[in-house]
Every structure is written in structure tokens, then in C-alpha cells.
Amino acid sequence: MRINRAMRVGIGAAALALAATLTAGCGGGDEGSVLDHAKDGKLTVGIKFDQPGLGLRNTDGTYSGFDVEVAKYVGDKLGVKPENITFKEAPSAQRETLLENGQVDLVVATYSITDKRKEKVDFAGPYYVAGQDLLVRADNTDITGPDSLAGKKVCSVKGSTPAQNIKDKYPQAQLQTYDTYSLCIEALRGGAMDAVTTDNVILAGYAAQSPGSYKLVNKPFTTEKYGIGIKKGETEARTKVNDAIEAMIADGSWKAALEKSFPGTGFEIPQPPTVDRY
């Protein structure tokens, strides 16, 4: 059968439409909203997999940490049972993309609320206000805060905000940067470093892995507001997640989750934050 030009154009258009449909189905996530998924009884939540005490994928395949507890509580308030939450790894550099593409419904991953990030995603919270602090060996008595760092070897991660803060504000410290905080912790353990610095809750998580080995100085000197990331424009979902955060704080679950996540570290649980309903 001879195919004329009009038929070829029609067939080509149909093929392109089919290809686009297949690509959309295979690429990103579900187009439904957070609340649509919650009504179906399921949620996908982005967390960190490598931050003890906050978001950690355990060797048995389970997940633990304060961010995980927050995600489960919020999910429950949205009508989703903990066993029906799928946790997906959300590295720092990928959090906005995961939300924008619909690959996750929420991100609960030590996600600091900033004006720049709010251009791309919405935030509920904050559900925690962290501060940069110092972790030292348990027997250390010399380091009592950032003003006592003169001549001390302080470790942080290359290119991080905490490292830059030490460089700019406490130049008397001997700053050294490694690729990961785990390497900093090993250097602290071996005596090559006198202190490790980043957000206090992250440090508390590492301390919890080795009870009795380290202690937090508990003198935070910056402010980082952790929020729950939501796809831009999902206003109703953000309102409901904010409601859940406030309920978690009010009924004692927030404090209990922190106590569960950081036992024996000397971590002082702060006053709960005020949710910002911007």
C-alpha cells in the first residue's frame, strides 16, 4: 500500500506522541499531589541514608533517626501508616530535583530553609532549628566554644558552610577540611584533630554511634532552620504538614523522638521551634 504524505505526517505525529508518553512514564515520578498519594495510603519521602541519629539506612534495611521519626509522624497525620512510607535517598544536591520531578512527596533530610531554595520548592516548618557546634573527645576540657579554638586543629568538610564560618570568623583555629564528616570523626578519634564542626544534631548522631567517646560542646554559634520540602505550589499539603509538626511538638512526640535518636551524647534538647506559616 502506498502511503501518501498526509498519512506519513499523521503516523509520525502518533509515533512522537507515543514516545513522549512512554518517556514520561519511565522517567520521573507520579504526577499526583502529596495529598492524592496520601489518600491512596502511600507516600514517598526523601531522607539522608548516611546521617546517624537523623536519617540512616541500617544494615538490616530499616531506617532510623529523628528525620525518620518526623516523617512517620507527619505521614500518620496525613493518613499513611509507617509501613506504607517508601524512603528514598535524598543527597543534598538532589533534593530540589527529586521534588520537582515528583520522585518524592516530601523531603525530610536536614533541609535548611533558605530564600534561594524557596524559589524552587515550598517548605513546612521549621521542625528543628540546628546550630553549628563542636564535637570533641570525651576527656577534652580545653575547648569550651568557638572562642577557645586558637591553635586547635578543627575539622570540617570541604566546601561546606561550617568550614567557611570557621575560616571567616575564627581564623585563629587551624582549620583542616576532609571529604566527609566520617573522615573527620576518625581523625578526631585518632588524635589528629582536636574538634569536628558542623550542625549540632549531625555531630550528636556521630557521638551516639560511639557512646562515651565524644561529647558535644553545646555552644551553637549559627542558626539553621530545618524544613520539610514540598513541591512548589502545594499549599494545602504544606498547611497540613505544618499542622502535623505543631501537633508533634504539642503532644510530646517531638521531644521523645530527639531523646530516642541521641541517647548518651550529652546533646541538650532545645526549645521546639515555632512553625513559620509564610
TrEMBL record:
- Signal peptide range equals 1-19
UniProt entry keywords in alphabetical sequence: Signal, Transport
| Source taxon at top rank | Bacteria
Q: Name one Pfam family in it.
A: SBP_bac_3
Any coiled-coil ranges, and where?
none
Q: Which CDD domains match?
A: PBP2_GluB
Q: Please tell me whether the keyword Signal is annotated for this protein.
A: yes
Keyword Magnesium tagged: no
What residue stretches are annotated with the Solute-binding protein family 3/N-terminal domain?
A: 42-264
Stretches that traverse the bilayer = none
> To which protein family does this belong?
Belongs to the bacterial solute-binding protein 3 family.
Kindly provide the name given to this protein in its UniProt entry.
Glutamate-binding protein
